[in-house]
RNA sequence: GUGGGUGUAGCUCAGUUGGUUAGAGCGCCGGAUUGUGGAUCCGGAGGUCGCGGGUUCGAAACCCGUCAUCCACCCCA
């Protein structure tokens, strides 16, 4: 048996309604906030991701699905959506379009990680990118969209955490301070964090080990070494969130794993999600368009993990128009089967959804299937009905039955269907 | 990449200190109802016990390997 690839899941018909519900509400909210859908390719040249995400990040160093095209160029299955969106923005000179460029996207992303609760190798994100506005209100707008859509989907126990990373220069001046402090207390750090002092000291702030947390509580804070501009910006963002009543908590430990973020960063986490508890996260990335050889362009965005939302979503929260067929055709016998075939087609062509199970050969088996499929009506057509020229329409709830002329089925059936 | 848990029927799981024919519930199919669904009763089908090797008179069980899967580390959505 050929099996699916590790960390790559099938979404069977039983679970797609839950996904459609999530996608539909995300679309609705994106629309309300003035974001428009963009569809970008699933693979790009490798250097796009290396340059945007950061060559020394885990994603680029060891998690990308990279392969050679036939002419030898290195291509990569997208590990996230921002890089491709920015590339498209630059390539099509969208900065020249006079209206704000605010995009949203859906789609699969690929990262070669060990699968775990809430983490797959092919996973799906909904993301948003807002280009061209260096105004705190656009950060607020994006955060509000994230919060409202997650709330509307019906998730409980969410926390929005915010931090401000300042500009790269702020971090450059902060990092040595932090490293000096950490080295003084190196022996009290977990072995992981001892290693991280050199590799990625900011990550130590986010360590879950209690000893490390206690220690970093006393550490110098990035917020204290921010210059005037980021402080003012941060204050404006928070003031705006207060104004529109988006609940948040400050988390000076929040550092993002992708290199391109600056100023505002944020993350929404959920309980009951296991170790991978981030549902959505994002931030401002004012330098990225320029790093990818575009014009200087401020930008903010976020991405949410769709399978993580799906995990959290209670069945009761799913509101979707169930796509159940209305009429079941119970056709049996030699003549009945043929008459049933044309009845099916007649109804479908007239816009009535109709189904049958061609394996069933007895009326009993047909009715059982009609029941399972949740059809409200069954049209019974056996050889007897064919000779009479009438089918029997059975209301599966009231059990009342009517004779209908097979020759004019759609017009005869229509009023009976709408009554119930 | 590292660590731990779990692999028995379509699904969820039992299976005694190793013992002869591997079970249950649910589901499925059929009958009671020769053409009327859901409930009930009766009957039936369905298993290379993940795979390979080893120990043993005898292995679903013990040992080794391997694969799959889940969880955690790392990292991230």
Task: Provide structural commentary.
- There is one protein chain.
- Helices cover 40% and strands 21% of the residues.
- With 420 residues, the protein is an alpha+beta fold.
- The protein has 2 domains: 16-167 and 227-317, Bira Bifunctional Protein, Domain 2 (BirA Bifunctional Protein, domain 2, 2-Layer Sandwich), CATH 3.30.930; 327-419, Anticodon-binding domain (Rossmann fold, 3-Layer(aba) Sandwich).
- Strand 3 and strand 4 form a beta hairpin.
- Helix 5 (136-153) packs across helix 10.
- The longest helix is centred in the middle third of the chain and has 18 residues, at 136-153.
- The structure holds one RNA strand of 77 nucleotides.
CATH superfamily of the largest domain: Bira Bifunctional Protein, Domain 2
Architecture of the largest domain in CATH? 2-Layer Sandwich
Strand order of the largest sheet: 1-5-6-11-10-9-7-8
**Global outline:** elongated
Proportion of helical residues: 25-40%
The secondary-structure class comes to alpha+beta
How far the N terminus sits from the C terminus, by CA atoms, comes to: 47 Å
In this structure, how is the largest beta sheet organized?
Answer: 8 strands, mixed
Under CATH, the topology of the largest domain is which? BirA Bifunctional Protein, domain 2
Could you list the spans in which at least 5 consecutive residues all have pLDDT below 50?
Answer: none
Kindly state the number of beta strands. Answer: 16
The CATH first-level class of the largest domain comes to Alpha Beta
What is the number of helices?
16
Mean of residue pLDDT values: 91
The quaternary state of the protein chains shown equals: single chain
């Amino acid at each position: 048996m050929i099996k699916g690839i590790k960390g790559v899941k099938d979404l069977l018909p039983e679970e797609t309604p839950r996904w459609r519900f999530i996608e539909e509400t995300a679309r609705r909210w994106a629309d309300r906030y003035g974001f428009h859908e963009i569809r970008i390719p699933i693979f790009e040249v490798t250097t796009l991701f290396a340059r945007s995400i950061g060559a020394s990040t885990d994603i680029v160093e060891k998690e990308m699905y990279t392969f050679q095209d036939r002419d030898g160029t290195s291509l990569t299955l997208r590990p996230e959506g921002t890089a491709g969106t920015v590339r498209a923005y630059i390539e099509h000179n969208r900065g020249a379009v006079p209206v704000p460029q605010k995009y949203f996207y859906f789609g699969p992303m690929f990262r070669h990680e060990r699968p775990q609760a809430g983490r797959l190798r092919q996973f799906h994100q909904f993301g948003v990118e807002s280009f061209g506005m260096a105004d705190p209100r656009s950060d607020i707008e994006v955060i509000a969209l994230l919060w409202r859509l997650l709330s509307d989907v019906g998730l409980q126990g969410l926390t929005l955490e915010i931090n401000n990373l300042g500009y790269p220069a702020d971090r450059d001046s902060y990092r040595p301070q932090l490293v000096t402090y950490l080295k003084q207390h190196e022996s009290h750090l977990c072995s992981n964090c001892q290693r991280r002092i050199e590799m990625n000291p900011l990550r130590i702030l986010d360590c879950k080990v209690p000893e490390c947390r206690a220690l970093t509580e006393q550490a110098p804070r990035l917020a204290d070494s921010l210059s005037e501009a980021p402080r003012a910006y941060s204050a404006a963002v928070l003031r705006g969130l207060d104004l529109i009543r988006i609940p948040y908590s400050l988390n000076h430990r929040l550092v993002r794993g992708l290199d391109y973020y600056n100023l505002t960063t944020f993350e929404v986490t959920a309980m009951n999600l296991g170790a991978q508890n981030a549902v959505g996260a994002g931030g401002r990335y004012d330098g990225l368009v320029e790093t990818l050889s575009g014009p200087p362009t401020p930008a903010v965005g976020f991405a949410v993990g769709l399978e993580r939302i799906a995990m959290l979503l209670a069945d009761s929260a799913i509101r979707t128009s169930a796509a159940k067929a209305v009429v079941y055709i119970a056709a049996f016998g030699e003549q009945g089967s043929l008459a049933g075939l044309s009845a099916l087609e007649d109804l479908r062509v007239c816009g009535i959804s109709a189904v049958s199970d061609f394996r069933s050969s007895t009326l009993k088996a047909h009715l059982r299937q009609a029941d399972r499929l949740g059809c409200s009506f069954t049209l019974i057509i056996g050889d007897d009905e064919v000779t009479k020229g009438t089918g029997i329409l059975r209301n599966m709830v009231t059990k009342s039955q009517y004779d209908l002329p097979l020759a004019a089925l759609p017009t005869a059936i229509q009023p009976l269907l709408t009554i119930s």
